[in-house]
Write a structure and sequence with these properties.
about 180 residues, mainly beta, UDP N-Acetylglucosamine Acyltransferase, domain 1, seven-stranded mixed beta sheet, six-stranded parallel beta sheet, 1 helix, about 5% helix, about 30% strand
Amino acid sequence: MLSNQEPVYGFTIPGYWCDAGNINNYRCAHFDALRQKLHLDLPAVHIGDGVWLGERVDIHPTVDLSSPIFIGNGATIRKDVKLGERTIIGTDAWIDEGSYIARSIIGSKSYIGKDTRITNSITGTAHSVSDGDRLEGFVNIERVSYQPARYSTANRISRHIPAQGKPEKTEVRNPITRTGIQP
């Protein structure tokens, strides 16, 4: 265009914009949403301190959370899991006992095995990580078929949805410890 001496125009847009065309920018856009740099209607309840929880989230009372963090609808977080800052857990994901996740995006319907450590990583939808794996800077967006067995426990955080479909309140039946977790 310039060599043909055609005009080039620019346009300033209001609000937030990020070219999410590469993995780093994709992660940054998610983390910016957690830090409320852009205004989104997240499908979750902000329970305070930078923690967003979806519906039917099952979190064991021994779980440690550092904010900001998002846990999607139907996710299960098992005993002794530590979720560090800037962590996004997708819908129906399963994080098994003793795992540590920080600065990462875990895709919907993913399974994270026992005693895993995941930092600065992205797993795609329905990805499975084996027990004891260590992932640093890992990116996998390929779809993997996996459906973990679902367990029902008494330690739940739930939202009550009336007939009109709007949440009335979030009930926390067990306290969640929010601590600063060092990688």
